[in-house]
Structure formats: C-alpha cells, structure tokens
Amino acid sequence: MKLISKNKKLWITFYHQSKRYRRSLGLDDTKANRKLALNTIIPEIQYKLNQGTFFNNDRASKPTVAEYAKISFALHEKERKPSTRYDYETSLRLHILPTFGKRRLSSIKPSDIALWQNKLLDRLTPRRVRNIRAVFNGIFEDALRDEIIEKNPISKVKVPKIDKVEITAFTLQEVKCIIEHAKDDLQSFVALGFFTGMRSGEMIGLRWEDVDLDKREISIKRTIKMGEVTTPKTQNSIRTIDIIDQLYPYMLKQFERTGQYNSYVFLNKDLNHYYDIKRIRNTRWKNLLKELGIKYRTIYHMRHTFATVMIEHGEDILWVSHMLGHADSSMTLQMYAKYRKQKDKKRATFLNEIL
C-alpha cells in the first residue's frame, strides 16, 4: 500500500485481488498527517482488507446518483433561479435517474455515458442533450470536489455537436401584415417585439412604471417565466431602451387598455400578468400566423427580426447591441454579421499614395 499526494491531499493506492484501487484519506498533505496515515490509518485499512470488511464500508460511503443528486442540488439551491431548478429537476427525473439513479457514482465509466448519450440523441435534439448532460456534469463535479470520485467520466465523452440554426427572420412585408392584422393587445405586443428586440419574458414582465412615454424610453428590469417574476437573463439585460417612432402609437393604445391599472403592460383576462409566454405563443400567436398564411416561427423570431432588419439597413451596431441587451457589440456581430450589407468599395486605396 502506497501513500501519495494529489492536489495537496493524501491518497493511498493499493492492489486487491489483482485490481488497483485509489482512495482519498481526506487529509491535507502535511508532515503530521503523513505520520498519522502511516502509523494509524494505513494499518487499519490493511487489517480491514484482510478481514474482508473494507469494501463493505467503502460501498456505504459511495452514494448512488439519486442520493448524491439531492446533495448537489441542495448545494446550488440559493444560486439558481426557480425556473432553472425546475428545468434541472425535470432533466434529472426524466433522463438521468431512469438509467443511472441506482448506480453508484464511482461505478460509472465514460463508456456508460457515451452509450446513454447516444440513446438520448435518438429521440432528442443535440441542444437538449447538451443541456441534460450539463445537469449530470454538475453532479459529477460536485462529487469530484467532495472527493467521492477521482475523475469525472463525462469529461471523457465528446459533447454533441449542434447544427448551426439558420435564422429565418420575418420580412418587413410580413412584419407589416402581422401588426396590421393582430387584434387588441396582441397588436401592441407584436409591435413591441418587432420594434425593440425585447425577449418575450421581458415583454410580459414589463410594468407601466418601467415605461416613460414622455421620454419615449422603456426600462427593462424583470422577466417572467413559468409564473416566476425574476431579474432578466444577464446583468446587461437590465437596460433602458428607446421607443422608436413606429412603436410609439401602439404603446399609447396599450396604455389606454391597461394603464389605468398601474400594473403590467400586458394583462390576461383576469387582469393579472401572463404566467408564461406559452400562453400567448401556443394560441394567439400561432393562430395569427396560420390565419395570415405566414410560415410559423417562434415569438423569439421577433427579436431576430429586429436585429437583422436594423443591421441590414445600416443602423449603428452599438445601438442595436444595447437594445438587445448584449454584453457588447461583438456578441451581436457574431450572431448577425452576415446581414450587414457590404457596399462596393475599393479597399486600402490609401496605399496608392505611398506605393
């Protein structure tokens, strides 16, 4: 039995029945702890090995995926939004526990992960599988920090590739048609989406106190998802954006509908905020596009349309980036650079004066 140091911690390595084992002693690598390990801990382990009781205790100290997942989720409970916790719990319940729930974390190999991942890809998109895999990876990483496992098996398996999704923005003619034919508050809603690039959760989370019709500004401070009112997606998403001239009359109309309640800009039939964007997307939005004979795209494509149209027509990229709530213009360019129209221009003509 050999005493080794790993990441400034003491471990032992030994062979038992022709199989090699490594175990953490849970001690810092100090002179005093080395003495304790050599004089007390290692002799006790050797005795238990000879008596055949060591691995009984060892198995008891290695939790199953289901057992440790509870610990892992509890560790991050305060830092994750309720909607995120719901998504993680759903991934765990539907896609991780059925295969690995009763397995001990230490028994899972990269090949087990690869086979599981392949089966998921047979029925789920690569993007969804990546999200599920991220949940499982977080559990393994926590176990690694707790020295319950020596290696994270997911790190040895390639992440599924995501095919680049082609953004199919609405044409300006389609935008005009959609806005003109939308009824009641849906008209103001789609105008807001097409003329600001706000995220759908930010739109249903907008309150009248955030709207300054005199200054023609909107302050984005919250978002709503699955009934949860919370802060926007990122720190940069908390922003103040412009009400452009084309949007202004629709905001005035919406104020006439709901401004008196001094509440949310968009209210359901019970005069409460919408629980989730699905309530609009799966009914009124989908029905409107069908009625107009326009190819279905998600509500999020209003945001894409705002970005592509503005960039196509030469609007300041910094302004577009700010309206979208991106961290900086490089993120906006990465997503929408191909929509910039390149004017015919001879490059580097200044060199003619020198060379």
Question: What topology does this entry show?
Answer:
Layout: E1 2-6, E2 9-16, E3 19-28, H1 31-51, H2 54-61, H3 65-75, H4 82-100, H5 110-121, H6 126-145, H7 172-181, H8 185-196, H9 200-204, E4 211-212, E5 217-220, E6 223-225, E7 228-230, E8 239-242, H10 248-258, H11 278-292, H12 301-312, H13 317-324, H14 329-336
Antiparallel strand pairs: 1-2, 2-3, 4-5, 5-8, 6-7
Q: If you had to describe this structure to a student in words, what would you say it looks like?
A:
There is one protein chain. The chain has 355 residues and is mainly alpha-helical. Helix content is 48%, strand content 11%. The chain contains 14 helices and 8 strands. The strands form 3 sheets. Strands 1-2-3 form a 3-stranded antiparallel beta sheet, covered by helices on one side. Strand 2 (9-16) and strand 3 form a beta hairpin. Helix 3 runs antiparallel to helix 4, helix 3 crosses helix 6 (126-145) and helix 8 crosses helix 12. The longest helix is centred in the first third of the chain and has 21 residues, at 31-51. The chain is elongated, with a radius of gyration of 29 Å. The chain starts with a strand and ends in a 19-residue tail after the last helix.
